[in-house]
């Protein structure tokens, strides 16, 4: 007997949406597992995987000098609970992944970062609702938030993986 997949429309049914909502509510957070994975990945591999896509994503803005105020500064993005996270800086015209803490830390849930990246909600609302929090040098964190909010950027896999940096 052959197995067939359900039609695409069935995957977006109210029952499927409700089932996924229940699973999200009762399944444990992936953050501890992601933190364990993140800590076991060597820094050179993180740099290899993350730097090129970030630099492609923001290439136009960097060429126009939009990131110049961040020269030599470090900012950490961190999932609630202290990990996983990534610290990046801007040196010599490029975004770099670095080890250690940031001068500013932007912390939130995976869902909040996803909402921010997909531009589904005004970034100010995410901060006012405390879904994202800035710690440390808040002026630096707000400057980054304002820069990202002002840029037109495409967070699609095609842009991240295939456009020249």
UniProtKB/TrEMBL annotation:
It comes from the Bacteria. Transmembrane segments: none annotated. Pathway: Cofactor biosynthesis; ubiquinone biosynthesis. InterPro entries: SCP2_sterol-bd_dom (IPR003033), SCP2_sterol-bd_dom_sf (IPR036527), UbiT (IPR016830). One of its GO terms (biological process) is ubiquinone biosynthetic process. Keywords: Ubiquinone biosynthesis. Residues 55-149 form the SCP2 domain. Required for O(2)-independent ubiquinone (coenzyme Q) biosynthesis. Likely functions as an accessory factor. Belongs to the UbiT family. This is Ubiquinone biosynthesis accessory factor UbiT. It comes from Marinobacter vinifirmus. The gene is ubiT.
């Amino acid at each position: 007997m052959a197995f067939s997949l359900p039609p695409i429309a069935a995957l977006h049914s109210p029952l499927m949406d409700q089932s996924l909502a229940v699973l999200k509510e009762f399944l444990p957070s992936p953050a501890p597992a992601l933190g364990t994975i993140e800590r076991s990945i060597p820094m050179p591999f993180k740099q290899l995987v993350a730097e090129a896509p970030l630099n492609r994503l923001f290439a136009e803005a960097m060429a126009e000098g939009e990131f110049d105020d961040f020269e030599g500064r470090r900012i950490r993005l961190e999932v609630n609970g202290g990990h996983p996270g990534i610290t990046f800086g801007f040196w010599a015209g490029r975004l770099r992944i670095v080890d250690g803490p940031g001068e500013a830390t932007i912390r939130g849930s995976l869902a909040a970062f996803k909402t921010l990246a997909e531009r589904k909600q005004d970034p100010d609302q995410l901060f006012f609702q405390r879904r994202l929090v800035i710690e440390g040098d808040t002026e630096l964190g707000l400057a980054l938030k304002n820069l990202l909010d002002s840029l037109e950027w495409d967070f699609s896999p095609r842009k991240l993986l295939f456009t020249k940096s």
